[in-house]
Each structure stands twice: as structure tokens, then as C-alpha cells.
Amino acid sequence: MNQNLIFIFFLSCWVRFTCGYLNLYLSLLEVQRLLGLDAELYYVREGVINNYALNFVVPVPSKLDSLQFTWKSVADRPLLYAINVDASNSPSVLLPPKLNITSTGSVPTSVQTFSVTLPCSGVLAGEVDVTITINITISHTNVTTLPFRRKKICAKLENQSNSHVFVVDTAPPYSNSVNIFYVAVFLALILIVILASVITTYYIKNKKTRRTTEGSSGPSTTFLTAMPRSTVNTSYGSFRRMPSYSLIDERSKDLQERIAELTVQRCRVCLSSVILEGTFARVYQGSYTNEDGVDEAIIVKTVTDHASQIQISLLLQEGMSMYSLSHKNILSILRVSIEDHTAPFLLYPYNNYNNLKIFLQKCKLSSEGVSHTLTTQEVVDMALQIIEAMQYLHKKHLLHKDLAARNCVVDDKLRVQVADNALSRDLFPSDYHCLGDNENRPIKWLAIESLLHKTFSVSSDVWSFGVLLWELTTLAQQPYVEIDPFEMAAYLKDGYRLAQPINCPDELFAVMAYCWAMSAEERPTFTQLQICLQDFYTQLTRYV
Ligand SMILES: *[C@@H]1O[C@H](CO)[C@@H](O)[C@H](O)[C@H]1NC(C)=O
Ligand SMILES: *[C@@H]1O[C@H](CO)[C@@H](O)[C@H](O)[C@H]1NC(C)=O
Ligand SMILES: *[C@@H]1O[C@H](CO)[C@@H](O)[C@H](O)[C@H]1NC(C)=O
Fold this sequence. Notes:
This protein is an alpha+beta fold. Helices cover 38% and strands 22% of the residues. The protein has three domains: 15-161, Wnt, WIF domain (Immunoglobulin-like), CATH 2.60.40; 236-349, 2-Layer Sandwich (Phosphorylase Kinase, domain 1); 354-541, Orthogonal Bundle (Transferase(Phosphotransferase), domain 1). The chain has 17 helices and 22 strands. Strands 1-4-3-2-6-10-8 form a seven-stranded antiparallel β-sheet. It has a five-stranded mixed β-sheet with strand order 5-12-11-7-9, with no helix packed on it. A five-stranded antiparallel β-sheet has the order 13-14-15-17-16. A hairpin with a 5-residue loop joins β14 and β15.
């Protein structure tokens, strides 16, 4: 086992104070200031320590020079504390930190905020590791240490150094203006380069568009000839309405052919009720009258009329990604219906299944009540079904690239099917994030290399499978909920991973942690995962 993994095991979180209760957290305001998130961050809640949060090194931007913590004792007797701030390693960057509470005392029984001031010297720029240690005495034999790790970033103060330079600098005044001259030349050069590249891109783009519009009559003819007679006109109309995929050459030609093969008339589709809904996305339950005049129960994925061409074309592309696959654990598209002036309908067979993420969340909601809670055995069984689906996909040379609970369905007998990710961005917006670019990606499910370089492989699907396994054992909690999507790459590189869920057996956690090995080669294959989980499943059934 490699070092990363050993490290992860130390993270297995939430340790309970045996007696005495404490709340210690960062207020909403402080989290907004520090991390830009709208949430409170609890380090200790009702005496339960969140080691996961404690282990996270929070960067403190140079513009912030004080940290605030909020705490309150809910114990029935005084809780003694001792606090120490250690930032001694770079005295030239950071001046001695200050606290506005005494270094020892008892935790107040009403909510109190205290601050730790970290003043930069301004003389030198740098990053300083700061550790704030709070010891809480629970009983005379037990002192619990809470270490808070921060990385304070200090900038050199420009005003200060400039004024310093002015005093010392005896160079004639023109040297300054010479400098300014060089700076101006440099800026002008940059501007020219930017202008040049803008013009070039514009030119290339123009050329490309011209070429594609010239070529676009090609694929649409193939499309037309492949169509059954009755639907030719309407499909042609809607095809024209979607210029976005006439721009994509080979693959989209492929797509059009596939769509042509599956197209049915809208009058054969009957919608009955909306089962999921996003800003643009709509998922309906309904029925489809097939060629033999028999009604089949279906699910329809579509978008509202307000959806953009890009959303429509994405719906088609993603919806068609599992086209013509046939496996008991894969939910593959059944039909497509494209009519004039309306968004396309994607039809899927419906066998009383639910979206897996929503199913898991419902399990959680009713876990106190009589309703179904998942046993470890059931979780492992579901995981094994997903593995079978993934093995089949990979055998067909397809990568999923967005394996997650939201992209699976499950029926009441816990039969799982892996589905495509069409509409998921809109139906589960909190699972997707943009990192500066315009691409909305499932950041917290992505393998490190997919996150950094957008490369995908069988092993990156394995990584996401690990996160899915974690979702199964936590009843679909949000992974890395405290971590800013922008920090994910750094966080993973530092060796942090998802913590072991409560009630998650070590064997199962070992399997998921193994999926998150930093290098793709170290991750298990789906075949290894299958053997491993099959063994574990057999062990579980042996004692029942
Ligand atoms: C001290 O407290 C910690 C955390 O509550 C607990 O895990 C540990 O068993 C306690 N140790 C003793 C000696 O009571
Ligand atoms: C906290 O406890 C640890 C070990 O129990 C000790 O080394 C450290 O000095 C204590 N810190 C403070 C601030 O009392
Ligand atoms: C410490 O300072 C913070 C912010 O400056 C303030 O909100 C808080 O009330 C202070 N706490 C105490 C105990 O003085």
C-alpha cells in the first residue's frame, strides 16, 4: 500500500469527546471571508471532532490579517483550555501573532468569538505555516489537542519599500523615467502580441465557419436519405435548427446517423408526469406506442423551449453516448423524437426505477423511520452491478467520464443501471462546477489527471467509481463539501481524500481509497475491484 493510502486512513474522521461537549466553528461570515463559501465550518460540533476539517490547511490571503473562531461550551462543568499560536519559523515575514483571549482559561458557556491576529511584517514576502493549538481538558487524565493549520501569505508592502527606496536611492531622477520608458515599451509589446493573436484567431475562426457551412449540406443529405419517409420533413426542419452540431464534423455525422436510426414520430409519445425538473431540463414519465402498436412505459429526457442550441445539442450528444448498448446494468436510450420547433425527446425504457442519488437521499431522510435502510451487503451488491456495467462499457471501448450516483438508476429490488449524464448538469447543479473556463465539470468526482489535464482513461472511471462507492455508503452526501472546487486539485495533490464514512466497514473503505491512488497505474482495475468486493460479499453472507 502506498503512502497516500496510509495517510488517508489517519483521516478517518469524527472522534467523540467522551465527556464534555464543545462547539467550535468558523462563522458564516468568517468562512465567506476566508474561503468564499456560504457555510459555517464546524471543527467540533457537540463534542464531535471533525478531523477532516482540522487536517485541511487553510490558506490566509495577504489582505486578511486576522482569523476568527467562534466557540461555546455546552458541558455541565467548566472546560479548561490552553491555546498557543506557533508561527515562529519565519519571524522576518510575520510579526508575533496576537490573541484577544487569555492563553489559558475556561471555554465560555455563551457563544464567543475570538481572534488571532497574524500581522505581516511587510518587509519580506512569503508563506508562513501557522499552527494554532487548543488543548481542551476533558478530565484530569484526558487532554484533547485540536491543531488548526493555516498558511499565511504575506506580501511585501509596496508603499513601505518604495518610501524606503526613495530615502536611500541617490540615483538621478531620470533613471526612474528610463525605467518607466522600458515598462511602457514592454506593455506596448504585450498589447501588440495580444492584438495579433486576437486577429489570428478571428481569421482562423472565420475560415473554419466558412468551411463548415460549405460542408454542412453533406451530412444533412445522409441524414435525409436515412430517414423513413413520414418523418423526413419535420426532422430536416429541426436538424436545420441546430447548427451547433453541423460544426462538429466526423463525430456529429455519426451522431446524426445514430439519431436517424432511432427517430420516432412525436405522436407515438405520450407524456404523463414530470418526475425531475431543472432550470431547462425536464424528465417525464410517459408511454410510447411501438411499431407493433404496443404501449411501453418510458422516461423522456428533454429541455424546455428556453434552452439554448448548445444545451439541445449537448442533450443529444450525451444522450446518445450509450446508444445501442445492451446489458442488464446499463440504461441505454430507446428512441429519439425530433419535431419541428420543439426540443428533442430522448426516450428510455422505464421499469419502475428511480434516480440513484435521489433514492439514496430518500433512504437517509427516512432512516429514522420504518423505511428502507441499506445494509453493507446491499451496498456491496449494488457496487458489483455497477462494476459489471463498467466492464461492459470498457469492453465496448467507451469511457463513461461522469460515473456518479446521479447518473445511475435503481429499482425497488436494488437492481442498478448505469445511465448517461444527459441533463445532469441542470438537474444536479451543485455537483458541477466551472473552474474559470466555461466548462461545467463534475470536479469532485474527477480523477486528479482529469481535473488537471482533462485526460480520461479506464483508471479515471475507476476513481469516479470510488467516489460513487462513497456516495453509496454515505447515502449520497456531497463529497468534499467543505472544499472549494478551485482548491480541489491542490487538496488532492497534498494527499487528502474523502474520509471514511460512519458505519463504513474498513474493508469497503480500503477499496474506495485504493481507487484514489495518485497515479493511474496504481489504481485497481474493475476486474480486481470485482474480485475484491465479491470476496467481501461472500464473507458478509457467511455470517447471515
Ligand atoms: C481522551 O479523549 C479522547 C477523545 O474523546 C478519547 O478518544 C480517549 O479515549 C480519551 N482517553 C482517556 C484516557 O480517557
Ligand atoms: C497541549 O498538549 C500537548 C500535549 O499534551 C503539549 O505538548 C502542548 O504544549 C499543549 N499546548 C498548550 C498550548 O498547552
Ligand atoms: C476579539 O476580536 C474580534 C474581532 O476583532 C471580536 O469580534 C471579538 O468580540 C473579540 N473577542 C473578545 C473576547 O474580545
